[in-house]
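User: Could you write out the 3D structure of this protein bound to calcium ion? I've included everything you need below.
Assistant: Certainly. Input first, then the structure.
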Amino acid sequence: MQKRMSEKELLSHFDEALEKGYIFAYYQPQFNHSTGRMIGAEALMRWVDPKYGMQYPSDFIPVLEEQDLLYKADIKMVEVACKLLRFCFDNHLPVVPISFNMSRNDIYKHEYVEEVEKIRDYYSIPVRYLRVEITETSAIGGTELVAAVIEKFHKYGYIVEMDDFGSGYSSLNILKDLNVDIIKLDLKFLDGGSGGRGGIIIKSVVQMAKWLKTPVIAEGVETAKQADFMNSIGCNYLQGYLYSKPLPEEQFLEKIQITIHETMTPTTNYSDEFDVDKFWDPESFETMIFSNFVGGAAIFSYDKGDMELIRVNKKYIETISMNLSEKDFVDTDPATFFAPGEIDVFVETIKKAIVSHDEEICDTWRTFTSRCCGKEDICIRTSMRLIGNAESEYIFYAIIQNVTAEKKIYASMADSEKRFKYAFEHSNTYAWEYMIDNKEMRPCFRCMRDLGLPPLLKNYPEPAIEVGIIPFDYADMYRDWHKQLEKGTESLEAIIPLTKQRIPFVVKYTTEFDDNGRPVKAYGSATAVAQNLENAD
Ligand code: C2E
Ligand code: CA
Ligand code: CA
């Protein structure tokens, strides 16, 4: 007989059910699709009442949660799972790690981790046989508390899984904040077909998880088609009705004995599994975006001073104008391309990006030797952003731009600037540019040095009047000059006693016009009168 218990019945029977063992676990095995071997199982809560029969989590968990009772049931699940594992060890039966579910409630119980640990200790279960599942939604309202619980579990050596990944609204953000070891991707949340949006999202998540070197278990796999799709995108770990429904203890024990098991590759060793070839799959959606829409782009890793290009696109190589293939290029140590000293600048930027989690930019010179062009020095502007990390390895997405021409123009401008600087020194002339449109004034080097001006003055000429460079009784005349410039006066000239010392200067303006005859800029100069007289002699 099976009948859904009412809320009242659930609550009044709860203590008895816990005590008498009506609340216990079913176990759903997890498999490696490639090898067919079992890699673990998830403990799922069941309540079998002697009178009402089987009750499912969706019926009673919300009620228990509401009354803050789920915590007790969750702890009970850890206990029954440990008991089962102990039974297997004692009877020399095959064993796989068992995952237990942690609820939002448990996070607020300060002793939760310690209680789990106490039970594990009591049954002497090696910690690698227990995994804890935390749902993405338990982080709603803030990740700090969850992060602290994960940290605690990690201290004891537990593997932590992110359950129901993709069910929340900010999955990717949460992944950044929570240091989980395994991602569980529920196909039902993502419209698990291989085509369409769902398929693309699943593919991207699996790909990203690889960058993060975090294994993914796909749950809710019901059809062979879904299993094959997951396999084809590099996710081999599956759980779902296709393989097995959740099983009562005895059936699970039978199953475990007739199935070969293997250990799921733990996070730290996942690099062997890191399938670079998949990454290069020319058919993939990511490749298409990466190759065609983003300019010069690269994915690279940084680990304690070592840099490695994981992937670059065609435009990246074009930007650097080299004759190498993508693969050859990626296989060369990127450090060898940097001009001396430049790598330090690059590494500094990497470190900044690790801390800021934001885009960081640097310009660095590289020397490339290509078959066609010989040796070439180019300056590359790199905008980089951290996209993931595993242990001490950090993974970045970088967009590059060749700024060599720009740099060379600046260098030559700096040269001519230098020439003017000396010419001004000798002629005792001060010079500036006045932008007619926005009233900005850019003084020359001498103005900045001798008069203490900043490189840019806004709302000119007011600041010059304010600090007394233009004496008060000349202020209105000088203001009027700037109005005339706006109206298109070609040139202006007068002797103005400048500074508090009232030193007479010949002050001149010459206006520059655009193609439509509109005044854009005026070049100002002030030459000491005494100097002029000397010159006239
Ligand atoms: P969950 O943690 O996501 O567990 C997976 C659920 O999907 C289970 O439902 C499982 O029976 C079901 N499932 C497995 N394979 C398939 C499949 O191929 N297709 C479909 N459609 N479903 C599949 P179940 O056992 O009813 O549990 C429901 C939820 O209740 C769990 O979702 C979990 O959130 C919660 N729950 C279960 N046991 C516990 C527990 O011990 N503690 C806590 N806090 N929550 C639990
Ligand atoms: Ca779960
Ligand atoms: Ca789940």
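The CA atoms of residues 380 and 402 lie 5 Å apart.
User: Perfect, thank you.
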